[in-house]
Fold this sequence. Notes:
The chain is of the alpha+beta class. Among the domains are: 7-48 and 154-227 and 310-376, FAD/NAD(P)-binding domain (3-Layer(bba) Sandwich); 236-307, no CATH class. It has helices at residues 15-27, 54-60, 65-71, 108-117, 129-135, 155-168, 215-220, 284-294, 338-351, 360-386, 394-401, 406-418, 431-439, 456-475, 480-489; strands spanning 7-11, 32-37, 75-77, 79-83, 91-95, 150-152, 172-175, 178-183, 190-195, 200-202, 205-208, 225-227, 236-242, 252-257, 260-266, 271-277, 304-307, 311-313, 317-318, 321-323, 329-330. The radius of gyration is 23 Å and the shape is globular. L-tryptophan binds at residue 335.
Amino acid sequence: MSQRVESLTIVGGGTAGWMAAAALSKVFKRLKVTLVESDSIGTVGVGEATIPTLQFFNQLLGINERDFVRETQATFKLGIQFEGWRSPEQKYIHGFGETGKNYWAAGFHNFWRRGDELGLAESFGRYCREVQAAQADRFAIGPDSGLNYAYHLDATRYGQYLRKIAERNGVIREEGKVTRVDQCKDSGNILSVTLDNGKSVDGDLFIDCTGFAALLIEKTLQTGYEDWSHWLPCDRAIALQTELTGDPKPYTRAVAHKAGWRWEIPLQHRRGNGIVYSSEYLPDDEALNLLNHSVQGGLTSEPNKIRFVTGKRKLQWNKNCIALGLASGFLEPLESTSIHLIQQNILKLIKLFPDSVECALDRDEFNRRADAEYRQVLDFIVLHYRLTERSDSPFWRHCRTMSVPDSLAHRMEQFQETGRFFLEDGELFVDSWFQVMIGQGLIPKTYHAVVDEMPESELAAMLKQLSQSVQSHIAKLPSHAEFLKRYLSV
Ligand SMILES: Cc1cc2nc3c(=O)[nH]c(=O)nc-3n(C[C@H](O)[C@H](O)[C@H](O)COP(=O)(O)OP(=O)(O)OC[C@H]3O[C@@H](n4cnc5c(N)ncnc54)[C@H](O)[C@@H]3O)c2cc1C
């Protein structure tokens, strides 16, 4: 008879490990969940920007939002401001909301495209509440605010916050460094991990949350890695924290430089900064120099230097081991998707939670979906690089002409030639595609035929009304800093 899943061992206590521990212990109360982590190894110590889906994950855990914002020193995020991506001077915001309104059979971008041609339309972002609120530094939550938002947070504090929840749910924490992994001779399944203090922890299922070390999924099971660095040439990052100067803005800054980009993320108590770059085009010391010269406020941390290979494990679930977080792969944080991908794998695991350790069908389904999710994010991130018009450095000249995944090439061509755009089932980014494509100058050559059915005067009135309604809505909101102060004082 096949072995029932009664115990789960998570190795690694970073954001991934504690997210998994908190969620799985909440849903499967009969499961014995153990988490092993090593204080001496520590966590990666970065990961501050999120996307709106984190709200749903927190709701699943029954987390009180105000409590969470307080504990993680979070601020609110309406989108990402991309600076210097299309050309060194140009900037646009990818906001988390819808732009305009679809009419008849056609998406709003078709009406905007015709309005633009006739000189009737304002910039695409003028029709998106989140973009306008971000630009005006305004924010509010509540039924009247109508804003879709995410958070900037201290990921280490988030992990610790989830740890309290997980331990309350009965998760057992074992401190120690895993020095040995034992496998079943026949199946290859992992049987137990042994810590440097001699203690052995077994489990029916294992979750590898050991970060870039990928101790179980790769070092033990040798799952293999799909290297995507030919599509995303950046391979290094340096993170640095500074004091917060000025009020926190409700958006992330992603500022392009000559060989990559850098981020600025405001939290309540500090600012997270970092640089992502390609070591082929920028030496490490120059990258650090560039970062040091661009940060504002006094330094509050030493530079955290990180090397990575963009890509993902060939299987995210291999044998009886599921990889989460950095152990599962890495895509640079341009669209703040890593924590989201952790959450997605956890939710998939919950949906496909196997009755027994022998569960090839569940495993295959999980891997198929995880693979699609990773590739969708890959396409979206590559898009930002490929759409550059910059030719002021060898790095950007490379990006302008580099090959891209076929799926992305098809999407870009279809949008440019026809203005049409189709999503696969369950895709994460929807309106975001239009904002980034148009924001970076990929304007369709034509628009949907139905748009010509609308008289010009009606089109003008419609565009004016949409823009005015966004502006009058935003005008009623408090500043982000005012809102945050009020929100935290309750
Ligand atoms: C430069 C950079 C910027 C990023 N920015 C963002 C962002 O803005 N938004 C976002 O969503 N994500 C971001 N990420 C990704 C995000 O940081 C990670 O997805 C997230 O922190 C999860 O990390 P983790 O838990 O997988 O790994 P880690 O935090 O590295 O945790 C690994 C854990 O495994 C343990 N461990 C390792 N080896 C052993 C062993 N032998 N025995 C016992 N324990 C062991 C460690 O002690 C630790 O507890 C960024 C990543 C990088 C590199």
